[in-house]
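Intended use. Records like the one below are meant for learning the mapping from a protein sequence to its folded structure. Do not use them to infer anything beyond what is encoded.
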Amino acid sequence: MAGTTIKIALIGNPNVGKTSVFNQLTGLNQQVGNYPGITVERKSGVCKLPDNIRGEVIDLPGTYSLNASSMDESVVIELLMNKNDKDYPDVAVVVSDVENLKRNLLLFTQIKDLEIPTILVINMADRMDKKGISLDIPYLENHLKTRIALVSTRKGTGIDHLKDLLLNYKGLSTEPCLNASSIDPEYFDRLRKQFPNQLLYKLWLVITQDVNFGRLDRKEIQGTSVTKSKSDLKRMQQQETIKRYQFINSVLKVGQTIDAGKANDLRARLDRVLTHKVFGYVIFVAVLMLIFQSIFSWSEVPMDLIDEGFAWLGDFASANLPSGKLTELISKGIIPGIGGVVIFIPQIAFLFFFISLLEESGYMSRVVFLMDKIMKRFGLNGKSVVPLISGTACAIPAIMSARNIENARERLITMLVTPFVTCSARLPVYTILISLIIPEKNILGIFNLQGLVLMGLYLLGFVAAVLAAWILNKILDLKHKSFFVAEMPNYKLPLAKNVAITVVEKTKAFVFGAGKIIMALSVVIWFLGSHGPGNDFKNAAEIVNQNPQLQLLPQKQLDDAVNAYRLEHSYIGIAGKAIEPAIRPLGYDWKIGVAIVSSFAAREVFVGTLATIYNIGSSSDDENAGEVTIRQRMQQEVNPATGEKVFNFATGVSLLLFYAFAMQCISTLAITKKETNSWKWPLIQLVSMSSMAYIVSLLAYQFLK
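Structure written out for the chain above:
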């Protein structure tokens, strides 16, 4: 077997620690994409097994059973039923939670009926003593007809045993745990005769659900003697579930022992506080305050170092590379543009660090439960809370996750309002503007004012999303409600490895995802800012030197005036001047206008664009020019007509509000189009959010100026 590859499917209920097992097996050898043809997230990784065997692990979406009720659950069934699928597993690994074995084993017994070699992983083994649980593993293996890996991802135990089982998967029994056909022997006998070459349980899944099975689908079955009414099929599904639980109960009655006297019920006491109708919200707000205070306070030092480092790098490139257009592109285009995003790595990393802690600890599920009480008042499904909260990272996977919402209208409303939630791409814009217009001081001696403003912007985005949902709920005349079931996982200390992988992977995705766009735009913006039509651009030095007032200036200021004049008459200057009349009432000059237009590709491009423009407009002969950081350039920018700072309080607030409401993300529009299968809804998003952003920013600037 040396040098071969084993395809492994990781399956399990939500909140059983499946991600932790996946991380233990694959480490950082992971990829995140989508399943072919759909936008459900697909996570895969490589696991190194003994004897030079390579395991390709696919982390399938969480599902409670093979009776699918959402798109991501259907992904699990269709993969396991189609042997021709390139990702069809050689072995299935069903992850369960030692405290919820009864519920988890329902899915396990169904997968066993598909006759796939299956390993049962019982996770969180370290909690057995605390909960008074003991297991008879040989007995369970014998009656469940499988091999079991007792695993603690927290302590890292059992993973080597799991790898050994994966290596020897061909020796696993494919015999089903029980005979599901006994729910109606006559019906299943007819089914077997009608389709003698097909696996009986796969036929049953095709009949009861809208899933495909190789060359056989529902159309081939309809009209045959095995067709039954929906009510009869529903009744038979219920009988199947009852029969499976009867089998599971009989196995666990001997194979699992629970001594309630040894259990410590700390969870119930914590839940009473964290989900309290008053204190629950207070604690949640306090947690948010801690997060946003830390984002500013802890990241200040590394951000300053990165900012100064890129300023030095630009100066070094300009001074040591041969003079010419290529050096200008590198020192004034690429380096400042990339620096405009890399500077925010500390803040992005801290944001994902805290989100990962909340998810790993089990607290995020309590937040979902807590906020569901508010969501219902605005016509949203309780499950809408998950996309809204995950939207703080990125709206794209958040919109994808709305597929869990069964009701089509509630799902549509959730997708349309999710972009209001402050995503990580807005964070660079917010933090740079807040640092320019909000003084760095403490309130009541402990609260950082800049952190409070950042938290206020996050809350503003959430409130805007909820109000927009309420309006859409009225407009779309939502009549049908679906029920929300929230599962509360056990509290646990976050695994350092899981947190680290989340921070690294999410930060890497942010940087490389934005970096590609910024690299391309930096080159384009540098070219447009360094070239121009007509004599005004070509003869900028002569025109400026002819001004008698400017001739008295020191050489550095004269050079800056020449560069500013040349930039104003470049291609990008002409484009900026063309849109300036429309944005001037908001307090923006043509340079900010160019940054706003370019940031439609990705919001975080705003800072990188301004960094590139300001570097183009600076004097290349000034030996200290490269040492001026991005924030310093923005702080020093002055309106030549008024002599006032461009980024004053009124303009800064106007920009903050504009980015709080505007749809400045073409990727989000694209994913909305794909999810709704129509350009109608993304265009409504674009027009309504942009109009709202313009009006609010206009009112704010006119009131504050």
